[in-house]
Amino acid sequence: MSHAVDALKLAVEFEKQALEKYKEAIPHVTNKQTRQAVEKYASEKNEQIDSLHWMIMAEAGQLETEEAPVAEEGAPKAGKCPFTGQLAEMGVDISKMGDMSNMAEMMKGMSKDETKS
Question: Does the pTM of the predicted model rise above 0.90?
């Protein structure tokens, strides 16, 4: 077993201990907002534990992964976003989506207002 898997398993144990402490505290919390926050943390911690279990399985090679769909040219047609290929066909470069400074450039010609002026 790899060092990464061992480290992730240890992390799961720490996350479980933290979750138990959150659950232990909830019945004793008197402030409504604090209670909601602690309940939210407990819920998020539970999701983190589930995610870590999947990461461990993936790192240990226990998950079968699907290959990205291949276009006719032999290159993957879509990235992480399932709509990347469709957006590219519409002329939208999804790789620029994270950088909002390019938003005007990406939206150029897409606005109905521009055609009126």
Answer: no
